[in-house]
Design a protein that fits this description.
Number of helices: 3
Structural class: mainly alpha
Helix content: 40-55%
Number of strands: 0
Radius of gyration: 23 Å
Shape: elongated
Order of helices and strands: HHH
Largest sheet: none
Length: about 80
C-alpha cells in the first residue's frame, strides 16, 4: 500500500518552477507545426506536467436575474487635461 507524503506549499511551488512550462509548450508546438516526431509516451508525459503547472480553463456562463440576459451599460468618462 503506498504511503501518503505531505508536501508543503513551498516545496510544491519550487517543484512547479522546475518544470519548464514554456519549454514543454514549445516542444508540443514544434511537433504540431513542424511535424517533428514525438512518441505517445513523451506526449503523455508533457500533458501530465502541463496539468501540474497550468490551470485548467473552464467555460463559465453568466446570466442575469432569473437566468435571463445580462444587461451591460457602457458608460465612459473623458477628462481633458491641459498640459503645463
Amino acid at each position: 500500500m503506498p504511503k501518503h507524503i505531505k508536501i508543503n506549499a513551498s516545496h510544491a511551488a519550487k517543484t512547479r518552477e522546475k518544470i519548464q512550462t514554456t519549454q514543454l509548450i514549445n516542444v508540443l508546438t514544434k511537433h504540431a507545426l513542424e511535424d517533428s516526431d514525438l512518441s505517445a509516451t513523451r506526449i503523455k508525459a508533457i500533458e501530465i506536467l502541463l496539468r501540474k503547472t497550468l490551470p485548467d480553463l473552464k467555460q463559465v456562463e453568466v446570466t442575469g436575474e432569473d437566468g435571463g440576459a445580462v444587461r451591460v451599460d457602457n458608460k465612459f468618462t473623458i477628462e481633458i487635461v491641459k498640459s503645463a
